[in-house]
Design a protein that fits this description.
Length: 268
């Protein structure tokens, strides 16, 4: 299907792939910075945001969509930056279409994803609902940042409860959640049931890779991300302390310079 895609800047192309739930807008933490030197393409994946569909699909169908997007834009080769589910799709693109991928930036993701999420309580669910509503009405307000947020499900997505992170949640995260279709939820559920594991195949990825993870991530653990880095032939990795799954919204002032430094090393 034809994907809704936000395109910024000019230069060597970087395909930016969001997670679940997610949308092109959730990748703006990257595209706002990278589009100064590169052309960034941030699509809404099939079943998300402006690429909604009523037809059932599998996660693998997104790979066909992405190849068609590159073809439509006349892009023969690009870097792929993937966050969470987007990182898994980035790995699959590199494995299935190696001629299209010049390098990978993998954020909070793994070739054998392992989670360590504790049981959810009803208090956390209630606080999440109330906190989300208040945060949308007044993004980054202290009642949420210092009160409801750390006592809600956001405690498992963030370790650094900052006004900046909560403003991102209000502007991008909540709407991405609401814009994620039931078909996308079902596709992810089916994929998880298959116990995805591509570690044995990573030796075939012969392009530079950068793996970034949060030390306290319980959605995809840091150990799983670092395991992926260890299996990639040309990978650099960094694990950031006191951060979780939404680390690009927690510490953009650290992650973005690290990404730009790595890009300069690749002479791109």
């Amino acid at each position: 299907m034809q994907l809704h895609c936000e395109i910024r800047g000019a230069g060597f192309p970087i395909l930016c792939l969001h997670g679940h739930p997610g949308s092109a807008k959730t990748m703006s933490v990257f595209t706002e910075s990278l589009s100064d030197r590169y052309q960034t393409l941030a699509p809404d994946l099939r079943g998300y945001g402006g690429s909604r569909t009523r037809s059932p699909f599998n996660i693998e169908d997104s790979l066909l969509d992405l190849v068609e997007l590159l073809d439509a834009q006349g892009i023969e080769r690009c870097l792929v930056l993937g966050w969470s589910l987007g990182g898994i799709l980035a790995l699959e693109l590199a494995l299935r279409h190696p001629e299209r991928v010049a390098g990978l930036i993998l954020v909070a993701t793994a070739a054998r994803p392992v989670g360590a999420h504790p049981p959810v309580t009803w208090v956390e669910l209630v606080n999440t609902g109330l906190g989300s509503i208040l945060n949308v009405l007044a993004p980054g307000n202290p009642l949420v940042v210092r009160g409801l947020g750390p006592r809600s499900l956001y405690r498992y997505l963030l370790r650094q409860h900052t006004p900046l992170a909560y403003r991102r949640l209000a502007r991008e995260g909540v709407w991405a959640y609401l814009g994620t279709s039931s078909q996308a939820n079902r596709a992810l559920t089916r994929a998880l049931a298959r116990r995805y594991n591509r570690l044995a195949d990573l030796s075939a990825i012969a392009v530079p890779c950068l793996v970034l993870c949060g030390a306290e991530d319980c959605h995809i653990t840091a150990q799983a991300s670092l395991e992926t880095a260890a299996h990639l032939p040309l990978a650099q990795s960094r694990c950031y302390p006191n951060t979780a799954h939404l680390l690009p919204w927690e510490i953009p002032e650290q992650i973005l310079p690290d990404i730009n430094h790595w890009l300069r090393q690749q002479h791109l």
